[in-house]
Prior knowledge:
Layout: E1 37-40, E2 45-48, E3 56-57, H1 59-100
Amino acid sequence: MSEDNITALPSAAGLPENPLALTTSRAPSMYCPHGAVILDDHTRTVTCANVQCGATLDPFNFLRSNASTIARAWSSYREVSNKASEIAERVHVLKKEGLSGITCGSDHVAS
Length: 111
């Protein structure tokens, strides 16, 4: 193998100064569920109403997230309602079976 095809990597001392400095307006570790929002009709923006957060939210993402949450809630509600109906029907059948198996003490004849 020929040594003339090898290029040395620049040393750390040869790298230029980082021209990009990032600053954030709030702590990145803060979690906010954005439980309440402010809808501004004039600027057409959605802003978190939590004073500590105050994030400007993407309207489409906010709508999609809430639509997904509502769809999951309705699906869960339907599932629980169906299970409750099934259980109520089983209880009704068991009550009927239990009542038909009960006899009065005077109806028993000793042999």
